[in-house]
Please model this.
Amino acid sequence: MGTTSTIQKATLDELAREEGKAELIQGRIERLMPTGDLPSEVAQNIFVSLRSHAKATGTGVAKADGVGFAVPELPSGRESFSPDASYYVGPRPRNRMRFIEGAPTFAAEVRSENDYSLAAETAMAAKRDDYFAAGSLVVWDVDPLVQRVNIYRADNPTSPDIRERGDSADAEPAVPGWRIAVDEVFGN
Model:
């Protein structure tokens, strides 16, 4: 007689105890690589601008890298996101030590050095699909090497609005009235 083993799905509680940045996908905790100097700086530039906007308008909250967003399991199996910078409009968790329940309204994903292969492109597109399936309105794919912001919107999720140095970038309708110079995103 053979034995069968059952692999138990990881939970959000287990994810919350995970050291470092990770997401819960298909019942597995998927660790995310730490970012380098430039991707981290780019994410911080976006966060700082978002935070100033949120404080000035009194609407939404800006979140820096590492915040967890818990979502009901998506068809892909994803149950969480941890964007590099984000903006959220919605109820905060009763226990503020826990993940935010729901998708970020706006998410910025900044490419790291290993995000330039065909497999990485496929994974990033799948993650954008997941963001939109979970309710995000705008997702940025931020490329520090070519200094480009690809703006994807839920109403047209496969055709990005491309912004480069000299342009300004927005996250309408997710973050009404917010704009940032692409030069500021990548450092003047």
